[in-house]
Design goal:
179 residues; alpha+beta; 4 helices; globular
Length: 179
């Protein structure tokens, strides 16, 4: 397969060496907002797995940013550009033919992951990168407080709570839930 192609799609050429370096520097994991949230949760005594792959029924694989396995809570810290934030996301003006479908597929993949996790009994928390750290930590802690760890009862595993996605606070959502 030729460089710059994948799954039958050609990547547009970089506008400059600087742009190319910028795009290579984008991280899949350990982004600044994600690391800040993990640190805040860790300081409050919460322990979790980071970037932990979950293999769900039907061969679906999901890799949340933060995973509380005993409570079945999956946390995603979504970037405003990559996940098309309605407040801060924008459609690129250059190479729109490439970016528009790519960003749409990302949103579709997010919804599919939320649905698969909910069907498997997981609670999904989606936070935008622009949510203030204290609000983001409070949203995660609130969900954890409503979910009991899996407890063995006569050899069975039982979990409390539903699998719906949540958003912190009232009024205008600052986190993404299922649509």
């Amino acid at each position: 397969m030729a460089k710059g192609t994948g799954a039958g799609r050609a990547y547009p050429p970089a506008a400059s060496q600087a742009r190319s370096a910028n795009m290579r520097a984008n991280r899949r994991a350990d982004t600044k907002p994600e690391v800040a949230l993990r640190s805040a949760l860790h300081r409050r005594g919460y322990r979790y797995r980071k970037d932990h792959r979950l293999d769900l029924d039907g061969g679906v694989r999901v890799r949340p940013d933060i995973v509380f396995t005993a409570r079945k809570v999956a946390v995603f810290v979504d970037g405003c550009f990559w996940h098309a934030c309605p407040e801060h996301g924008r459609q690129p003006a250059v190479n729109e033919w490439y970016w528009a479908p790519k960003l749409r597929r990302t949103a579709e993949r997010d919804r599919a992951a939320d649905t698969a996790l909910a069907a498997a009994g997981w609670q999904v928390v989606r936070l935008w990168e622009h949510v203030p750290l204290d609000d983001a930590a409070a949203a995660v802690i609130a969900v954890l407080g409503r979910r009991q760890p899996l407890l063995p009862l006569g050899g069975e595993q039982v979990a409390a709570g539903g699998g719906e996605a949540v958003t912190p606070g009232g009024g205008e959502p600052v986190a993404r839930g299922q649509n």
